[in-house]
Amino acid sequence: MDTSNPTHVSRRTALGAMGAAMAVPVVGPEAAPVRRSVEGKVALVTGSGRNLGGTTALELARRGADVIVNARSNRAEAESVAEEARGFGVRAIALLADVGVEDQVNRMVADALRQLGRIDILINNAGFRGGRPITEMTTEEWRNAAAVNFDGPFFCSRAVIPSMIANRWGRIITISGTNSWHGQANWAHVCASKMGAVGMTRALAVELAPHNILVNHVVPGAYLATPNVARIPLGRIGLDQELANTYAFLSSEESSYITGQTFHVNGGELRV
Hints:
With 272 residues, the chain is an alpha/beta fold. The protein has helices spanning 6-17, 51-62, 75-86, 102-116, 139-167, 178-182, 188-208, 240-251; strands spanning 42-45, 66-71, 92-96, 121-124, 170-175, 213-220, 262-265.
């Protein structure tokens, strides 16, 4: 992966600016070569036109998967990630869809299946953010959060599961955040909708196990520049690549006996 990407540079710069003697891990091309652990698989990563989602799509491509790069409306960003992914010798397409809109999800998945033939891996990365005190929150704001964070994983999972069942192999990963676990003022809509996805993960893990489809949940910690790292035992924010590595592991055959689980990737910030 090209760590000259501005996202990676900003993370490293932010880490250095915090002043602590932090051990930043070696990731990307400087690290040891990665086995192509998802060779021949097809992965859909929602919200992957930039940031964590883009890094994840590129990591799966580096490990051999064909990728579907999804963005809600910015085609240029999605196409840029897809072009970079093709540099790893895989197929990559960019498809626009708002994951909170059922018809758009269904069209996206149908288009992906026409072009790539199957979908083996789904990473429900797209998320809604934004704070508002509960007494000021509108019903529309509540439902907008639920549409992306809760309906989106449902729509996307339901659409791709038939392909996974047909091939008797699948990986579905949903995502929340530490605020959903410890609570955060003014984020009731976000916390509630993301925790709903945890319940769906556990139910689907049981329902889909007979089809060799594994369903897990990942809870990222701090991956954006923040001055408050004292609460993080490792003393730094995370790198996008570190989270992408977790998704790649759970997407591979190496995770073949793991389903229905929640993985906290947060530098020790939240210990559960």
